[in-house]
Write a structure and sequence with these properties.
With 292 residues, the chain is of the alpha+beta class. The protein is built from nine helices and ten strands. Helix 1 packs parallel to helix 2. The chain is globular, with a radius of gyration of 19 Å.
């Protein structure tokens, strides 16, 4: 039997995202409370006679014709760094379940899954810290996606601090409007905002909801100016019982925080019934990182 490895590439949700400044090189400084969901893309790698890359799944068509997919870039980055140790050809198959350009880190999570899977497949002598440093070259969110668990991200996203949060029931909704991150940042009215308030780890759902009400997503107003549909989406989440309704990342995906996954599923069914073209998915967040 050919060697085959598989890994989930989960959705990344910014429960809060504060833009606190901008570096001289143009990168924005952020403080964000991040969680990862059990709903995910999936990446598979197996031995092959020649390299190949296949994308399938609900959102595969959104990547059709893409020449520089982050999975391929991750593969090539490892080869550049490790040379002959990473030379064996591989067949890569990406099951694309997450919408593209949606503010939930799909591409970064796919890239992190590729780095983790291929380093195991090729049996590379690389630590998690070194893999994270390599991943930063693919995008600021890639290092955090290597160990998907609740965390605080600072700097440009590379300074990571694990936090203790219970599993949270979320409803993810996207109206089918892609938003490019650079366009959202270019539309920001203000780039120097207050940081996240102090937060104690753990706590009840009510404590977490109370904390989140003291925070923001500083990209939300800019995204709303580009995609007004986000406002309708947030109103629908609140009308269907969400404790918190907020945009994730640079959008257009928004999340609702619910008491239970059953409540999230009921809200999702109601929203999907009146908006059949939207991406609507109830899920639960993970509390521990995946093993590479």
């Amino acid at each position: 039997m050919p060697v085959r490895l598989e890994r989930a590439a989960p959705a990344k949700v910014n429960l809060a995202l504060h833009v606190t400044g901008r570096r001289a090189d143009g990168y924005h400084l952020l403080e964000s409370l991040v969680v990862f969901t059990r709903y995910a893309d999936r990446l598979r790698v197996r031995e092959a006679e020649a390299d190949s890359f296949l994308v399938r799944g609900s959102f595969a068509t959104q990547l059709k014709g893409e020449k520089d997919n982050l999975v391929i870039r991750a593969r090539d980055l490892l080869r550049q760094h490790f040379g002959g140790e990473a030379a064996a050809p591989v067949s890569l198959e990406l099951e694309k379940n997450l919408p593209v350009a949606a503010g939930i880190g799909g591409g970064s999570s796919d890239a992190a899954a590729a780095l983790a899977l291929l380093s195991c497949f090729w049996e590379l002598d690389v630590s998690k810290d070194e893999l994270a440093r390599l991943g930063l070259a693919l995008g600021a969110d890639v290092p955090m996606c290597l160990s998907p668990r609740p965390l605080l991200a600072r700097g440009i996203g590379e300074a990571l601090e694990p936090v203790d949060l219970p599993a949270l029931a979320l409803l993810l909704v996207n109206p089918g409007v892609p938003l490019l991150t650079p366009a959202v940042f270019d539309t920001l009215p203000r780039r120097e905002n207050p940081p996240l308030p102090a937060m104690l780890p753990g706590g009840s759902l009510q404590d977490i909801a109370h904390f989140l009400r003291t925070t923001r997503n500083d990209l939300e107003a800019a995204a709303l100016s580009l995609a007004p549909e986000i406002g309708d989406l947030l109103s629908l989440l609140r009308a269907n019982g969400a404790l918190i309704a907020r945009m994730s990342g640079s959008g257009a995906t928004c999340f609702g925080l619910f008491d239970t996954v059953e409540a999230a599923e009921r809200a999702g069914a109601a929203i999907a019934a009146s908006n059949p073209g939207w991406f609507v998915r109830a899920t639960v967040t993970s509390t521990e990182p995946l093993e590479a």
